[in-house]
Amino acid sequence: MEKLSYEDFVQDLNTGHDIEFEYIGKKYSITNSQDGFSLCEYNSSEPITFASVAELLEKAKISGRTIKEIWPEIKVKDIF
User: Fold this and answer.
1) pLDDT of res. 1
2) Does some domain include residue 1?
3) For each of the chain's 80 residues, which pLDDT tens digit applies?
4) Domain count of the fold of the chain
5) Distance between CA atoms of 49 and 37, rounded to whole angstroms?
6) Residue 2: phi, psi to the nearest 5?
7) The domain containing residue 46 runs over which residues?
8) Long-range pairs of 52-58 with CB within 8 A, sequence gap ≥ 24
9) In a domain? residue 62
10) Torsion of CA 63, 80, 8, 61, to 10 degrees
11) Around Cβ 21, how many Cβ atoms within 10 Å?
């Protein structure tokens, strides 16, 4: 998949898409549900749910960093 810009990533989330990605060899997903937007690492944790995309982008941390901070190292695998 062609490298997705951070701005397009945010737009896809705001449109309600689910996104799967890899970061330092681990798989993650962001899914849109009735409760909000959930971030989950595959096979290792319960999802963390945020009320909005803005809250997810501000408060979600992977290895102590926000998604925007690690964006250059993220490889988007699928967008649903």
Assistant:
1) 66
2) no
3) 678 999 999 999 999 999 999 999 999 999 999 999 999 999 887 899 999 999 999 999 999 999 999 999 999 999 99
4) 1
5) 5
6) -60, 145
7) 6-79
8) 53/10, 53/13, 53/14, 56/13, 56/30, 57/10, 57/13
9) yes
10) -10
11) 22
